[in-house]
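Exam prep: given the inputs below (a chain plus nicotinamide-adenine-dinucleotide), describe the expected output before reading on.
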Amino acid sequence: MFVWQSATNEQRINCLSRPAVKMGVKVKAAVEAIIDNVARNGDDALLGYAEQFDARVNPRIRVTRSELVESEFALTSELKSAIDQAYSNIKKFHQLQLPQSKQIETQPGVICELRYQAIEAVGLYVPGGSAPLPSSVLMQGVCAQLSGAKTIVLATPVKGDSQINPAILYAAKLCGVTDVIECGGAGAIAAMALGTSSVPKVNKIFGPGNSFVTMAKQLLSQSVPGLAIDMPAGPSEVLVIADSGANPEFIAADLLSQAEHGEDSQVILLASDRELILDTEAAIERQLSVLSRADIAKAALKNSTLVLVENIAQAFEISAQYGPEHLILQIRDAERYLPLVKNAGSVFVGDYTPESAGDYASGTNHVLPTYGYSKTYSSLNLMDFYKAYTVQTITKEGLRGLSTAILPLAQAEGLDAHANAVKVRLENNND
Ligand SMILES: NC(=O)c1ccc[n+]([C@@H]2O[C@H](COP(=O)([O-])OP(=O)(O)OC[C@H]3O[C@@H](n4cnc5c(N)ncnc54)[C@H](O)[C@@H]3O)[C@@H](O)[C@H]2O)c1
Ligand SMILES: N[C@H](CO)Cc1c[nH]c[nH+]1
Ligand SMILES: [Zn+2]
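Solution:
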């Protein structure tokens, strides 16, 4: 147990530091080499990485159309309807976000509009190194589909001699994905950013992934002209704020649900009650013993801390400083505390709102900023698949009215040609 009140500043900073950030320099060098190889050797580089990193036997790049169409027959009816239910809820929540153009006459004869256009070609990365994630297909695919993107490329790694997971293919089919690519990591991101013989080049790359994926997105968005990315969405994180009324079994389950994602996941509990922390420690031990991914969760717990805070208000201050991907509030009267939430990708309110609900099926998006980027980035939403642009239409009289602002400003800036573009029109008597 970490006691916030008696810790030094340095100990507090350490307690909130993220494991993935510590390995940044090594990851950058590896990713730069991968991008360079894909730029030079295209598909051949991708096939090589599939063998090297995913132990792929007879690697290939493209999944066929008929595999997509037939994927549902490989699913149990239970899993198929689970995917359908999640798809429907995610679609409902994201349909709410459809952008609407707006216009206003700012002064007589001067009309300004804000319009939206879907990004034409999008690349969706679905992590698959440690677990296949059909839910991540839905989170990104529903948005791409609702936006009307023309090209929707989905890349995911496949391990060893296994087949690509049919649940991933079925979710991709539901979302209207146009190209499914069997490659992972930085290579897959580079392929979608640069294009290869088999992989269409896209305008924007989305999706979570490990440190290699996240680094590749960041590096390529700085070097490929016009390429955009959604956000740095790396190793999963959850921060739980709990009061003395919380259930330690629920807290332990929530912490373990994210610890099991990867060894570099981080889970933090901020609790105002010492007994609750001790009970949660015991619950974690009990629950861990029957988890199939206990080893991964145990490793992640080494980067994680159960913290005793003075009071709930202090917990919110610490959480704002950390900026978690997910924030779970297991406190009485939790809604009352929502105004204290400052930086969090997605907030789960009350004892019966586990993160798993948002991870899979409630309707909210699970692609969220990590590494503290919830301080500045939004959670993935439909707007990320659009660009907004403006349109203006001005009548001659409108321009005359506006000239009293344009001409003095152009003069003040010493830009005569700007002023002339107005004057020639106002002096024109040919219409
Ligand atoms: N933030 C979010 O919204 C969100 C959502 C889902 C999952 N996640 C996170 O995504 C991550 C998924 O990671 P993952 O590893 O399971 O899958 P992944 O698909 O992101 O990464 C697997 C790929 O990493 C590459 N790789 C592996 N070892 C490498 C090495 N030594 N050098 C270079 N490249 C290497 C390989 O190409 C491999 O195919 C987890 O950390 C999980 O927590 C985040
Ligand atoms: N918790 C992950 C985001 O950090 C999303 C996910 C996918 N499947 C299960 N969980
Ligand atoms: Zn999860």
